[in-house]
Design brief:
The complex is a heterodimer of chains A (about 200) and B (about 700). Chain A is of the alpha/beta class and about 200 residues long. Chain A has 6 helices and 7 strands, in the order ααβββαβαβαββα. Chain A is globular and about 65 Å long. Helix content of chain B is about 65%, strand content about 10%. Chain B is built from 23 helices and 10 strands. In chain B, strands 2, 3, 4, 5, 6 and 7 form a 6-stranded antiparallel beta sheet that branches. Classes of the chains: A alpha/beta (about 200), B alpha+beta (about 700). At the A-B interface, helix 1, helix 2 and helix 5 of A face helix 11, helix 12, helix 13, helix 14 and strand 1 of B.
Chain lengths: ~200, ~700
């Protein structure tokens, strides 16, 4: 604005801010026009096939920081959940089952990310529904932004090289569960996975 | 028959709106005032005609004429009378009609109020308003017609959306529209200023009350929407950063920036282009908001049915308005240059500059957040989540900065502040802020946002009240009266400033409410059987029993809870789970008990079919009412500001505006502007027509 106040009289013709303003308006209109033909509830399958953003976050139970890089070389299943989320309850027993199934494998980690929640409520939730794996707290919502979480539950599968191989939106139940366990986690652990 | 009359009236209104666009243009071209007069009559008649359209629709609601498709879709014979009347704005078509009705009313009002005092603005005002009007009437008549009939005639209406069957929700859209549409008047004045080249302070002074009124209505509308969300949607919050909330919030932010920055132009003749830009932006954002909401381009709890045809039309109209207004700004602003440059960063004008930048950054933050889904779709960006975490991280620091500036801006001197000034003004608030920080940290507040917020509140409150003490004692000493009378005198001397400060106090109250009700909220979600109880902070709630309940157009279950503090029974609460039979929609009805200025808030989102258990959501929201009390104080400040007495002496002589007019008009024309008495129309049209030789 200061620029505006100080710019020279009209002789120069159109100035930079004017062009910028026009460009913004034009861009907006194009964006709106494109948007009209899109589906507002479409969620782009971003991030799959790219490196998983680093995470450093406090553990839900112990006073320590957990980072994703400490699991490098392992298959990490990242599950975003919250105590207020109804659908999370549907998949919770399945999560416990996944952990139970792969607990023996030193190369497997299931990590819960507690999203938009209060600490005591999260603990109460786990106490009520059972727990056998580690959880971290997304205190500032930073992790959810990095991973593009639209809502909970969402689950990411990260391979030994730190690449995101799969993203699951919604609860892991029924066929989704079978797919996740037999087609994603097992092949990755056995080193027989093909690019998805 | 009546409905056809209304339909016909609105069709005629469209024709008159087109007349309203062209007759002032002809008047300017031919320099004949009578054509502008025609425009004035056209907008007046327009109001009458659209009123007939409104009345015809309301009549159909009262007699429940389901042969009108829109009435069928939004009403029902079992609905209480109040909601039958309000059904008109319960959907897309009718709310557009309400929009245009308000627009026609304001346009008529502005043309009549300012006809004598602002003759030079009239042709542009009428032309611009009629342009907006034409766009909306075209949309109504061709793509969203509420007057349409259906055959065969249904026996019963589909019912108004149960979520909208609520007093706050009934008043929320009209207030928002009053705000959106109210902005169109200062917008038209700004466009008139640009077209005619009369870019002094006159348009700002003339539209001050319009802007304040629009801002007030927008604020009331937003707060009502928040209150509705709070107790009707039952999630215990009042603001969810939903695209439609944002659509109302963005014009509000820019209008707030505008209300502040005009003061710099009035006092220091700076920010001229900037002010024009802000008001054009504010109104454009309300149009963009309308587009976002009506086209179904974003998914939101509010969206109306998506219809690409409608979307394309609104987008076309929106693009036309954007290019027209910003284009004019760009090509006409070349003549503008502030004569005065900023002297120092430590001055009131600089603080206003920061204020404006912060508001704009806040707006851009919300804008990007709102459009993010569109952007990601268009460009396949990587980071895609834009929910409350994004807004809390990006918006909150800006908001905090703005609150902080409230403690500086009104007190720092214009031009340049000396170190001595700064010390006098801000040493005390600074110390109080530090004291407050220590106190709250000691009191056990650990959340960094809460601490920062409360520290800033301490700073600003001290700045405000030490200034009050200063002016009160100044007048008390000078007039030999008590400090309280001194304060009253101070208010009478400068009502604008002090009512503005009252609005600031309201903001502080609201900030305190927001901090406590969000950060110190206690929440419990659990399944309870009758006889069970749970603790909620220092309170206990006990589910006594669950039973069936029903109302006129719904049936459902109700739960009876006892709320205790210690062993004392405080109250009994009865939240409900309703099922609206006609529209087949479930809702949760909140039960609230007020404790001081906080709430115990209970909902039962889920009840077992056999009534053996219920999922209970219990919240304790401390100080939550402060949010709306603060809003009330803000509103009061603005109402005082709108109805304050204008100081006639100053405005009559206009020592400040005279040189300004001299810049843009030849001397003879200036005489006319200032003393328009006889034949002013003809002379003015000659004088201000932009095609003439000037400057």
């Amino acid at each position: 604005m200061k620029e505006m106040a100080e710019t020279k009289p009209p002789a120069a013709g159109i100035r930079g801010w004017q062009i910028a303003l026009l460009a913004v308006i034009l861009g907006l209109i194009i964006l709106f026009y494109k948007g009209l033909w899109g589906n507002p509830s479409y969620i782009p399958p971003v991030l799959v096939g790219t490196a998983a953003p680093e995470i450093t976050a406090p553990d839900l139970y112990q006073p320590k920081e957990v980072s994703l890089s400490q699991f490098r070389g392992k298959v990490v299943v990242l599950n975003f959940w919250a105590s207020w989320c109804q659908e999370c309850k549907l998949e919770h027993q399945n999560l416990l089952a996944i952990q139970k199934r792969f607990a023996q494998n030193p190369n497997f980690v299931l990590l819960g990310v507690n999203y938009q929640d209060k600490e005591d409520l999260a603990r109460e939730y786990l106490q009520e529904h059972g727990n056998n794996f580690e959880h971290i707290r997304d205190v500032k919502g930073r992790i959810s932004i990095d991973y593009g979480v639209y809502g909970v539950p969402e689950t990411f599968v990260i391979d030994q090289n730190g690449m995101i191989r799969h993203k699951q939106i919604g609860p892991i139940i029924g066929e989704t569960y079978t797919f996740l366990v037999e087609r994603m986690i097992e092949p990755l652990l056995n080193g027989t996975a093909t690019a998805s | 028959m009546i409905i056809e009359l209304g339909h016909f009236a609105v069709i005629t209104a469209l024709i008159l709106a087109v007349v309203g666009i062209f007759s002032p243009i002809v008047g300017l071209k031919r320099r004949e005032a009578v054509w502008v007069e025609v425009g004035k009559q056209a907008v007046t008649l327009n109001f009458v005609l659209i009123s007939i359209g409104m009345l015809a629709m309301e009549y159909s609601y009262l007699v429940q004429d389901y042969s009108v498709r829109y009435v069928y879709a939004t009403s029902n014979s079992k609905l209480p009378l109040f909601y039958k009347v309000a059904g008109l704005w319960g959907g897309h078509e009718g709310s557009l009609l309400l929009w245009s009705w308000i627009l026609s009313f304001f346009c008529m009002l502005a043309a009549r109020i300012h006809w004598k005092t602002q003759p030079a603005v009239m042709p542009y005002l009428i032309g611009m308003q009629s342009t907006v009007m034409t766009g909306f009437l075209l949309l109504i008549l061709f793509l969203s017609n509420p007057f349409e009939r259906i055959f065969p005639v249904p026996l019963e209406g589909r019912d108004l959306n149960p979520l909208l069957q609520d007093p706050a929700m009934v008043m929320h859209p009209p207030f928002l529209y009053l705000g959106y549409v109210g902005l169109s008047i200062p917008f038209s004045f700004a466009m008139a200023a640009l077209f005619s080249g009369r870019l002094g302070e006159e348009w700002i002074k003339a539209t001050q009350r319009w802007t304040l009124m629009a801002w007030l209505c927008l604020t009331i509308g937003i707060l009502m929407g928040g209150y509705w969300a709070y107790y009707e949607l039952g999630w215990g919050g009042y603001w969810g950063w939903d695209p439609v909330e944002n659509a109302a919030f963005m014009p509000w932010l820019v209008a707030t920036a505008f209300l502040h920055s005009v003061m710099v132009q009035e006092t220091r003749k700076m920010f001229k282009v900037w002010n024009l830009f802000l008001i054009i932006l504010a109104f454009s954002l309300s149009l963009i908001g309308t587009f976002l909401v009506r086209s179904g381009i974003l998914s939101s709890v509010h969206s109306f049915a998506a219809d690409p045809g409608r979307g394309v039309f609104i987008l076309g109209f929106l693009s036309f308005m954007l290019f027209l207004s910003f284009g004019t700004l760009i090509f006409r602003s070349a003549k503008l240059k502030s004569q005065i440059e900023m002297d120092s960063v430590l001055s009131r004008e600089a603080i206003f500059l920061f204020n404006n930048l912060f508001f704009l950054v806040a707006m851009v933050t919300v804008f990007i957040g709102t459009l993010y889904p569109l952007l990601t779709e268009a460009m396949q960006f990587k980071k895609v989540s834009v929910g409350p975490p994004y807004y809390n991280t990006v918006f909150m620091p800006v908001a905090l900065g703005l609150v902080f500036l409230m403690g500086i801006g009104p007190y720092i001197p214009w031009r340049k502040a000396s170190v001595q000034n700064l010390k006098e003004l801000f040493l005390m608030p600074g110390l109080m802020a530090l004291g407050g920080l220590a106190f709250f940290a000691f009191a056990g507040i650990r959340n960094s946002y809460a601490l920062a917020g409360l520290t800033v509140v301490c700073f600003v409150a001290t700045a405000i009240f030490s200034d009050f003490a200063k002016i009160a004692s100044f007048w008390a000493k000078r007039e030999q009266i008590s400090p309280i009378q001194g304060f009253v005198t101070a208010y009478k001397k400068n009502p604008r400033r002090l009512s503005g400060i009252l609005t600031h106090i309201g903001v502080l109250v609201m900030v305190i409410g927001i901090i406590f009700s969000t950060i110190y909220q206690t929440e419990k979600v659990l399944i309870m059987k009758p006889g069970e109880e749970t603790g909620l902070g220092s309170y206990r709630i006990k589910l006594i029993r669950l039973y069936g309940a029903q109302g006129g157009n719904w049936e459902g279950q109700e739960a009876l809870f006892n709320v205790y503090k210690g062993e004392t029974l405080l109250t009994q609460l009865r939240p409900q789970k309703r099922f609206y039979t006609v529209s087949q929609t479930p809702t949760t009805e909140t039960a609230i008990h007020q404790i001081y200025t906080g709430h115990i808030f209970l909902t039962i989102p889920e009840v077992a079919p056999d009534g053996s258990w219920a999922r209970v959501r219990a919240l304790h929201n401390p100080l939550v009412l402060w949010v709306w009390y603060g809003g009330g104080i803000m509103g009061l400040g603005v109402i005082l500001n709108i109805f304050r007495k204008t100081r006639m002496k100053i405005s009559a002589a206009r020592p400040e505006t005279a040189p300004e007019v001299a810049v843009s008009l030849p001397r003879s024309a200036r005489e006319e502007v200032l003393h328009h008495r006889s034949n002013r129309w003809q002379t003015l049209l000659n004088a201000v027509w932009p095609g003439r030789k000037e400057v």
